[in-house]
Amino acid sequence: DFLRGYIYLNVLVTGGAGYIGSHTCVVLLNAGHNVIVADNLCNSRFETIDKVKQITNKEVIFYQIDVTEDAAVAVIFSNHKIDAVIHFAGLKAVGESVEKPLVYYYNNIVSTIILTKACQKYGVKKIIFSSSATVYGENEIPFIESMKLLPTTNPYGETKVMSERILMDVVNADTALAVSLLRYFNPIGAHESGLIGEAPNGIPNNLMPYITQVAQKKLDKLKVFGNDYPTVDGTGVRDYIHVMDLAEGHVAALDHLTAGVHIYNLGTGQGTSVLQLTKAFEEANGVEIPYVIVDRRPGDIAECYADVSKAESKLNWKAKRGIVDMCLDAWRFESK
Ligand code: NAD
Ligand code: WQD
After folding, report:
1. Which residues have a catalytic role annotated?
2. Which atom from ligand 2 is nearest to the alpha carbon of 273?
3. pLDDT tens figures, 53-87
4. How far is residue 155's CA from residue 50's CA, in Å, rounded to a whole number?
5. Of these four, 251, 280, 283, 330, which has the most CB atoms within 10 Å of its CB?
6. pTM for the complete prediction?
7. In the chain, where does DSSP find H-type helix?
8. Which of 159, 112, 117 is nearest to 14 (CA)?
């Protein structure tokens, strides 16, 4: 165990019971790292931690805390010699962020400040932050890290822009810090075991969980938000990435983390329309997804996909799973 702290790290994963966090815990544990999760379970369940243990046959240390609370965060840093923080904890429902802006600004920004402060106090140098392609706003596609960011259309998006900015300013003042800002495109799919996946509360906002619930007949039909966009078939185009590829991207980012701020797109570089994804799901799983075309959803852009060359060259990471895998794995999880 003499490599602990050198290549095997004690990683604090905030939001580790959530969708992307739980898959990343699996990849971290399988790579030999120790995982400490901090999650208040506001959008997840403790059982997910048990499933992570079951998949990996490894231990996970779990703290049910709110990471906006200074004292609760301090307990973790004083109990464990943390080497790196991966900060997933946050609220992510775009529509809700318009209704409750203060809840979103408080939770998503204060958590970033509190954790970064704790890192400085306890000498933790490595921070990985969950950012989003939403920070690009309505830029030219493909989105590339060097672009000037354009305004987002909602408070959720602004919390990501602001958290990125806070972390950049902190590194500017403390050049020993090593920060990676990971801009995720659209994660879908699930671990191949079908034990963990995306399980939103209530009616899903996002496309894939909506499709799987239509397939389950929990929902009647998919509402396609607009078919008059300037895209291949008029429906919105996104860069869907398998959540396990995304999880592997975090471990690659951790392995390559050096002092300074590093921004990476984590996507596939491929665009898929709403109707293409729906058809792929039907064909992969042999189920029918009835749909109806409705009005555009306010705030949506026509097309969004990544330039992934930076992550490929600097992190030696590339998404390997395709749309069919994403559809099969999403359905395996939902139908379990
Ligand atoms: P999720 O809701 O499944 O996971 C977030 C986790 O954070 C949940 O388990 C929740 O209980 C926890 N949490 C929230 N606020 C907390 C707090 N104050 N203290 C402790 N725990 C708290 O969401 P996800 O899809 O796994 O997203 C993870 C991160 O990635 C988020 O920051 C999200 O904004 C970002 N992101 C997600 C997507 C996406 O499409 N899913 C895309 C881009 C970025
Ligand atoms: C995908 C496409 C919709 C639902 C959101 C956030 C973004 C990021 C990822 C966190 C679009 C269409 C959807 C439905 C539909 N999250 N659609 N019917 O909007 O690209 O990104 O999640 O950072 O910030 O905005 O993802 O899955 O909601 O939509 O037609 O019931 O599917 O219009 O074209 P989106 P999505």
Report:
1. 156
2. 34
3. 999 999 999 999 999 999 999 999 999 999 999 99
4. 33
5. 330
6. 0.98
7. 19-30, 47-56, 70-79, 94-99, 101-105, 111-121, 155-173, 207-215, 243-255, 274-285, 309-310, 323-335
8. 112
